[in-house]
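User: Structure please.
Assistant: Input sequence and predicted structure:
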Amino acid sequence: MQMVIDPASPVPPFEQLRRRLIDAIDTGELAPGARLPTVRRLAEDLGLAPGTVARAYRELEAADVIETRGRNGTFVAPQGDAALKEAQRAASAFAAQIRALRLDPEQALALARAALRDAPSTS
């Protein structure tokens, strides 16, 4: 994800960053469960003060757009209704497990499709 903060803009840097992250989430550039850079790393990358990035993150977290998971980092929060949020959390956990197992993503998707196909119907 490419971000540029315009220091000459009348919009404060934290607000530019907040809006850019929301846009990236809305367009799917950042998917639910995506890990965000640390405050220090993003501040360094963008040439901002860490407090500026921290403020944007705090405001996004207060709006349930992102979530901090302690030492594990900051992630894009699940979006939508309760069932969709739970499905997004499950998908994120599945993706993390697949990465930990170092399986090919296509193979993982085939396994998921087979599991969904073979699962008993709930309707």
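The CA atoms of residues 5 and 13 lie 6 Å apart.
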